[in-house]
Amino acid sequence: MDKKHERIPSREMGRRMHLWRYGSYGLPVLVFPSASGMAHEWESQGMLDALGDLVEAGKLKLYCTESNVAEAWTRKENPAAWRIQRHRDYERYVVTELVPFIRADCRSETIPIAVTGTSLGALFSANFGLKFPSIFRWALCMSGRYDTTWLTEGFTNSDIYFNNPMAFVPNLAGAHLQQVRENTHLVLVCGQGKWEDGNIEDTRAFAGLLEAKGISHECDLWGHDVAHEWAWWKRQARHHLLRLIARAT
């Protein structure tokens, strides 16, 4: 498998950002990590073993980025209002610096990019797909929670609101809503077993909001034996990425 480690210079983040690229050809998929925030998470957790044949066959091209999830969301030493500004910096890094890098690597200035992630990576995937539908056309969100106020201890402001899909989706309207309807498809996947409490409820509720707004989506709840862990996410990712490949060909 073609594999390369990159350090992407980022003015927005004030440092070089780690990125692992897997594959030479295929549909570009941007992978957001879970709470670990590490770019090599999918490889270390065996996701590349589960998807390697699709990458080697030129069906998928994976871009696994790091995130600042701890700085912005999970560590709470700093005030929530400060932390959300760091998330906004990360959002600008993805859209204005990482996306152009991916498109240049794919030799296309307009190629659509899919997004995916597990746990907090699912929240990131949904957020980017809904906010930037002309860039991110398909989002696979596995075991996510979509109301970010649980990460801010109930605090909210306008910046948190616009990064809280459960808050802003009910108010989507006009040209942006139409663009989302025309371009973006979200796949919400969640098991119903161990450690999925909260994720199941958010997944169902979020799917209901998308349905009410006429936004293309699927809600795929797996069985009561399906836990919040990598063994299941490997199977879910392979199942749905195979469907994405079939849809694109």
Molecular structure report:
The chain is of the alpha/beta class and 249 residues long. It has a single domain, classed as Rossmann fold (3-Layer(aba) Sandwich), CATH 3.40.50. Helix content is 44%, strand content 21%. It has helices at residues 41-44, 47-56, 69-74, 80-105, 120-131, 158-161, 165-168, 174-183, 199-212, 230-248, and strands at residues 3-10, 15-22, 27-32, 60-65, 113-118, 136-142, 185-190, 217-221. It has an 8-stranded mixed β-sheet with strand order 1-2-4-3-5-6-7-8, sandwiched between helices. Helix 2 (47-56) packs parallel to helix 10. The longest helix has 26 residues, at 80-105.
Radius of gyration: 17 Å
Which residues sit in consecutive blocks of at least 5 with pLDDT less than 50? none
Q: Using DSSP, what is the number of strands?
A: 8
Q: What is the approximate shape? A: globular
Number of helices: 10
Strand arrangement across the biggest beta sheet? 1-2-4-3-5-6-7-8
The name of the CATH superfamily reads Alpha/Beta hydrolase fold, catalytic domain
- Helix-strand sequence: EEEHHEHHEHEHHHEHEH
Proportion of residues in helical segments: 40-55%
Instruction: Give the biggest sheet.
Output: 8 strands, mixed
Number of domains: 1
Task: Please name the CATH topology.
Answer: Rossmann fold
Just give the CATH class: Alpha Beta
List the helices and strands and how they pair.
Layout: E1 3-10, E2 15-22, E3 27-32, H1 41-44, H2 47-56, E4 60-65, H3 69-74, H4 80-105, E5 113-118, H5 120-131, E6 136-142, H6 158-161, H7 165-168, H8 174-183, E7 185-190, H9 199-212, E8 217-221, H10 230-248
